[in-house]
Amino acid sequence: MNNFGGWLPRTRFYRDGFLCRMHQRTSMGIFCLALFVLLVALSACQAAETAPSPIPTSDEPQSLSIETKDTPAPETTPILDPVLPSDHDSPSPIPLPTEMIDYGIFWSTGFESGNLNDYFENQGEFIRQSTLASYAVVNDPVFNGRHAAALTIDTHSLASGRAAAAYLFYYNNPDAGWYSAWIFIPEDTQPLSWWNIWQWKSTYNGNSDQSIPMWILDLTAIPGRDDLQMKLVFRPDSNALKRAYANPSATINKGEWVHISTYYQKSMDTDGIVAVWLNGEEVYRVENVQTTETDNTLYWSINHYSETILPHPSTIYIDDVIISSERIEPSYRLP
């Protein structure tokens, strides 16, 4: 077969050209030449049909359509639909001081010292509201290592409208970062009113005695079920400003360790961010919100704080408390 796709009788190729040595009569030579011309024409047509079409160009810019989810806060309804994350969206890690260690952690405690020194020696403390509140470091139940912290309150003899609270406060918090801990709630625990287990507070005058709860995690009983609903609440102290976010998927099982990881970005105005992950799944995210008061202070605490909760007394357990620049996965263990 020759380079043009047709068959020619008894051909020979030379470096400087193409030569057919014919062993036929002159009429056969004319026939071959005509056949050769026909084959060349057919090959040219086929090449023209298969050549790729040019890519059209346009002087007009192309636009990219992006779906957004804007959920404005309602003016009257206090319980809102949760602002859920998209599959690709997550808060960007914020750079923190250079003294950070592994996984972006710059402060943590697993209570392995057998006391609260990791709090007391690093701008943290235990605070109680009412004499019926206390803390202890225990060796059972424990999530990781040998110890965990226990927070206990007793609401049995409180006057109406009063509350008991056991807080573990930490004050040296970043402008933006991740806060995580493991929490164990015994099976016989039953909140009969609001129950604040996690909060960020701020002040307008630098006086921590007058601090204001900005955002909290509130646990409530679910009728006919053993698990608890976890809500994200803004300004629970103010009837005028209070907003509560309730996601049906944000539930906590009693009698087992659960992992809570939250992202908090400070803002005196309306560019703050609060996001909540439960056992590795994001259940809440609110953006463009106020997260601190006018002096931009920020205090974080894990609490056992309620007006009425069973049994009397009531205890919850805490382990592996971490503040970091990156989200801590539930698979991570403090060394």
List the helices and strands and how they pair.
Elements: E1 11-14, E2 17-20, H1 26-50, E3 79-80, E4 105-109, H2 117-120, E5 124-129, E6 133-138, E7 148-153, E8 164-170, E9 176-184, E10 190-191, E11 195-202, E12 212-221, E13 228-234, E14 243-252, E15 257-265, E16 272-278, E17 281-289, E18 299-306, E19 309-310, E20 314-324
Parallel strand pairs: 3-14
Antiparallel strand pairs: 1-2, 4-20, 5-8, 6-7, 7-20, 8-18, 9-15, 9-20, 10-19, 11-12, 11-18, 12-13, 13-14, 15-16, 16-17
Radius of gyration: 36 Å
The rough form would be described as globular
Structural class: mainly beta
What is the CA–CA distance across the termini? 75 Å
Beta fraction: 35-45%
What would the average pLDDT be, to the nearest integer?
Answer: 80
User: Would you state the CATH class of the largest domain?
Assistant: Mainly Beta
Proportion of residues in helical segments: under 10%
- Output the number of helix runs: 2
The number of distinct structural domains comes to: 2
User: What characterizes the major β-sheet?
Assistant: 8 strands, mixed
List segments where confidence is low: pLDDT < 50 over at least 5 consecutive residues.
Answer: 1-27, 44-101
